[in-house]
Amino acid sequence: MEQSLDYRSLPLSDNILRAVEAMGFTEMTEIQQKAIQPGLEGRDIIAKAPTGTGKTCAFGIPILERIDLSLRQPQALILSPTRELATQIRDELRELGQFFEGLMIAVVYGGQSMQRQIDALKKGAQIVVATPGRLQDHIDHRTIRLDRITTVVLDEADRMLDMGFYRDVKKILDRIKSRKQLMMFSATISREVMDIGWLYQRDPVELTVLPVEESQPKIEQYWIETTGRRKLEDINDIMRGMGYRKAIVFCNTKYTTGMLERQLQGKGFNVACINGDMRQSDRNKVMADFKADKLDILVATDVAARGIDISEVEVVFNYDMPQDNDSYLHRIGRTGRAKHEGTSYLFVTEDDFSRLKNILRYTKLTIHPMTFDENRKLVPVTDSSI
Q1: Cβ atoms of residues 151 and 128 within 8 Å
Q2: Which of 42, 104, 258, 298 could bond 125 through an S-S bridge, CB–CB 3.0 to 4.6 Å?
Q3: For residues 25 and 29, what is the distance between their CA atoms, to the nearest angstrom?
């Protein structure tokens, strides 16, 4: 029997129902339909779901419904691979919990003052969102209590474990003796994700959400054969020719982000970059400016851009060929969000054709070949052999 899409079909409190209504949510996504009820029951969950499918609500609603607001200690821990995603989760949970009086949520990540985070924890946060490395720092300094944590969530588990946090995650889970529930949400079920599941979950509910037409972002994808020297002009001509106002350009290295930032500024664009060498406060300012439409273009590396969720991004440029297939999907997923349509361009040099063929085989996506005519207008390529 088909499940209801209405949040009111679940045993949810008025606080949650009021919050989802205030947030503009009218019906549940597929992952929410499948995960919220077992989450409320305290079941372990391992879920494979694409990015942008509403996973934060899928684990956030069960967490909020089971929090004891009279207890001023951490009761739920959410581990995230990056600072940006951790902050995004914190913000969404605050919106979901806006009608829970006395709810406190702390976020802890590297690049921010430890003392500031200690102060937030001392105030009595019941939910902690953290990156594994910084949480381990707090554990080592005994500045966080773990003895009342009953629910742990690993968000984007595959990415987190691929980034080298496998041992940290294991150490953290081993320290949480009071844990009764472990929920894992992942775009792919890698061997490391399976290992964590085998070691720490008991009879988990296994969920799979496939990209379907309604939930899959509407993204027109194109590839353009070019050279390293021409890429700057290609971005300039596409941005101006198509009238795009908000773009993200992905590069493979921190050096390239800085170089391209300066070159695009020279073309008259309002541009800023984010990469792993920047202080977190500087990265936060860039993201705030981008969200506030003070920037035309954000130039970013893959890791620095993880967790960016800005619905108005019109176009994504793959300035450098993605180093793996999942990175391509992550990059293009920064556009076409919140039911907006988006566009992506993949720049392909002569040395990149084997990687392009690999991406096409792996993703089974349609990426249309384009080229520039004599007037520097984009036109379809009709005789591509790829």
Answers
A1: no
A2: 104
A3: 10
Conformation bin of residue 325: beta by default, left when phi > 0, alpha when psi is -120 to 50: alpha
- What is the DSSP-derived secondary structure letter of residue 97? T
Angle at CA of residue 190, ends 184 and 193, nearest 5°: 35
Do the Cβ atoms of 326 and 188 come closer than 8 Å? Answer: yes
Give yes or no for a contact between 126 and 47, defined as CB atoms under 8 angstroms apart: no
Q: 42 — alpha (psi -120 to 50), left (phi > 0) or beta?
A: left
Q: Token pair of 319, please?
A: 């300035």
The answer to whether the predicted template modeling score (pTM) of the entire model surpasses 0.85 is: no
Report the distance separating Cα 133 and Cα 79, nearest Å. Answer: 10
* Beta partners for residue 356, in sequence order: none
Write out the chain's pLDDT in tens, 386 residues.
345 578 989 999 999 999 988 877 778 888 999 999 999 999 999 999 877 678 899 999 999 999 999 999 999 999 998 888 898 899 889 989 999 999 999 999 988 889 999 998 999 999 999 999 999 999 999 999 999 999 999 999 988 887 788 899 999 999 999 999 999 998 888 888 899 999 999 999 999 987 644 445 688 999 999 999 999 999 999 999 999 999 999 999 999 999 999 999 999 999 999 887 787 678 778 888 998 899 999 999 876 665 566 778 999 999 999 887 777 888 888 887 666 789 999 999 999 999 999 888 877 788 999 999 988 998 998 776 66
Distance CA 330, CA 314 (A): 15
* Pairwise CA distance, residues 97 & 100, whole Å: 5
